[in-house]
Design goal:
mainly beta, about 55% strand, disordered N terminus, disordered C terminus, five-stranded antiparallel β-sheet, four-stranded antiparallel β-sheet, elongated, about 0% helix, single chain
């Protein structure tokens, strides 16, 4: 038989989610985040999920014939409810969160007490699979839809049958109440949507236009629009009053599920093409594609607060951050590759260094250009800890120091005999370190106030591509073309240790905020995490398909960002788990950096279009559930 995946209302309209025996928690991405949490327990496809009341509990239904309740604060299993003799296809939570309804292939609807897990009612009457259940907004009525072509209404408090809505020429695949409870929409297998008057049970209108089964329906929060997904690979937005529709095209296979955000501004759809797509609900414009697996996305649903989007596929459930993580604010102006980007400590300024021989200073709030600073090809930029000075390293063998407020050149640091590839301030702002190319291969230490040279550090046998001070200022790390990472004692400037293992030039290094871990990126396409204390390799992060030019930790140390010619990737810094990937518009990333508050990720590189420019993206608000 053809199993249909649909769901009713769980305080909001929450279509179903489906996966193989696990639930997972993640955050929304512009393209491809991966889950960061799994909820084991189910032993077969999870066909439906929904939030109870304020979202503190998540309910799931499965082909294993059970319902499970999960604490969304700890992601621990609260209880398992058994009783169905067939697969559970749909769950719907009452508006108060006190009861939950489930529909099953056993042709019954069951109503459960969420506090105790007790079965309250078993509702019989359908003569075929119950595909969808939904509570009315006032919680007094429960509706169920079935492949027997009927919608049945039940008294939610007593389980008493009230009436049936008949007349559909096809099986009912999905049902949804309008926000005022006056109208019920049902999607059918004969390509149409039927609107019903709930009070008198009459047929109001039929919405036609799809050329395949209507698999999902959802009302907008204001009740004026209805979204539908179909086996014809399209999403349609309908004007409920006049019946006209707009067709949204992006998916390349049948659409299983649709859902509106809490504020009604965003529409999500899930498809057999392995993606969830976000749309502007007002204009129908395509916003983003979310994809992190090679399996169908059977359903999508927004959390009650509208901040998270849940997507369900044949192997997992993922929770995405709706407010964060999308690429925003391109800053146009550079005419060649952007090799370096940096935020000022207060986050008010943003610097970019380019192969177009300029450094540009930007106002991050207004996203406007403040200063254009001249020079040669710029490989690295960094702000002083007080934010007053910007250092730039360039092709002409020098380090330049700039006044951030005026854009004036303060001094030039001379001494390197090859292009300067990297530069860093010590945490107290008193010292500058710089690394040079192959024909120099030295790290030089400078007095930041006077520009006077302090020490030259030898050891690398290839260009020094990256330098960075530890957060406590006691250690300097450098990465080179000799495939080595070297640790230096800042007090004596003696080499403490060298870390080897990369199979290509080390292009980037970064200390974790606690100073105990160093991350490195290399031409071998990998990121490595190292223990500073022991020099031992902690983890290898694989996934990039090209040179890794940049790495940076978030301020809380939970997340690591990496930049490559193929993408920007976000990783769980503790486990090495891949969380997210940004690919759109990025042809080659040369630099990534988090703002000091962790809200923004700056990216510089080669970007699609004539103008190559830096741009920045919101940092995802990752949630790490307690174990």
């Amino acid at each position: 038989m053809n199993r249909r995946h649909t769901c009713g209302n769980c305080h909001l309209v929450l279509p179903i989610l489906s996966l193989l025996g696990t639930l997972s928690v993640s955050a929304r991405a512009h393209e491809a985040p991966e889950w960061i949490w799994q909820l084991p327990g189910h032993t077969d496809f999870v066909t439906s999920v929904g939030y109870l009341g304020d979202g503190s509990i998540l309910a799931s239904g499965s082909w294993d014939r059970t319902l499970r309740l999960w604490d969304t604060g700890t992601w621990q299993l609260i209880r398992t409810m058994t009783g169905h003799t067939g697969e559970v296809l749909s769950v719907s939570c009452s508006p108060t969160g006190e009861t939950i309804a489930s529909g099953s292939t056993d042709e019954t609807v069951r109503v459960w007490n969420t506090q105790t897990g007790e079965l309250l009612f078993t509702l019989t009457g359908h003569s075929n699979v119950v595909t969808s259940v939904a509570f009315a907004p006032d919680g007094r009525t429960l509706a169920s839809g079935s492949t027997d072509n009927a919608v049945r209404f039940w008294d939610a408090s007593s389980g008493v049958f009230q009436r049936s809505l008949t007349g559909s020429m096809g099986g009912i695949t999905s049902i949804a109440f309008s926000p005022d409870g006056d109208t019920l929409a049902s999607g059918t297998t004969n390509d149409e949507i039927i609107l019903w008057d709930v009070q008198i049970g009459s047929h109001l209108a039929s919405l036609t236009g799809h050329i395949g089964d209507v698999t999902s329906v959802a009302f907008s929060p204001d009740g004026r629009s209805l979204a539908s997904g179909s086996k014809d690979n399209t999403v349609r937005l309908w004007d409920v009053v006049n019946g006209t529709s707009r067709t949204l095209v992006s998916h390349t296979d049948q659409v299983y599920s649709v859902a509106f955000s809490q504020d009604g501004r965003t529409l999500a759809s899930g498809s057999r093409d392995n993606t969830a797509t976000l749309w502007d609900a007002e204009t129908g414009a395509f916003l983003h594609t979310l994809s992190d697996s090679n399996t169908d996305v059977f359903s999508v649903a927004f959390s009650p607060d509208g901040v998270k989007l849940v997507s369900g596929s044949s192997d997992t459930i993922r929770l995405w951050d709706v407010e964060e993580g999308t690429l925003l604010h391109p800053l146009f102006g550079h005419s060649d590759n952007v090799n370096s980007v940096a935020f000022s400590p207060d986050g008010r300024r943003f610097a970019s260094g380019s192969a177009d021989r300029t450094v540009r200073l930007w106002d991050t709030q207004k996203r406007s250009l403040l200063h254009t600073l001249g020079g040669q090809t710029v490989y690295s930029t960094v702000f002083s800890p007080d934010g007053h000075t910007l250092a730039s390293a360039s092709f002409d063998d020098v380090v330049r120091l700039w006044d951030v407020e005026t854009g004036m050149l303060l001094r030039t640091l001379l001494g390197h005999t090859d292009e300067v590839l990297s530069v860093a301030f010590s945490p107290d702002g008193a010292t500058i370190a710089s690394g040079a190319g192959l024909f120099d291969s030295k790290v030089r230490i400078w007095n930041a106030q006077t520009g006077a040279p302090i020490r030259t550090l030898g050891g690398h046998t290839g260009g020094v591509n990256a330098v960075e001070f530890s957060p406590d200022g006691r250690t300097l790390v450098s990465g080179g073309g000799d495939r080595k990472i070297r640790l230096w004692d800042v007090e004596t400037w003696q080499e403490l240790d060298y870390l080897s293992g990369h199979g290509g030039d080390v292009l980037a290094v970064a200390f974790a905020p606690d100073g105990r871990t160093v991350a490195s990126g290399s031409r071998d396409n990998s990121i490595r995490l190292w223990s500073v204390q022991t020099g031992s390799l902690l983890n290898i992060l694989s996934g990039h398909g090209d040179d890794v030019w940049a790495v940076d930790f978030s301020p809380d140390g939970n997340v690591l960002a990496s930049g490559s010619a193929d993408s920007v990737r976000i990783w769980n810094a503790e486990t090495g788990q891949a969380l997210r990937s940004y690919r759109e518009q990025i042809l080659s990333t040369r630099s990534v950096t988090f703002s000091s508050d962790g809200r923004w990720l700056g990216i510089g590189g080669v970007v699609s279009g004539v103008a190559r420019n830096p741009f920045w993206v919101r940092k995802p608000k990752w949630t790490y559930p307690r174990r």
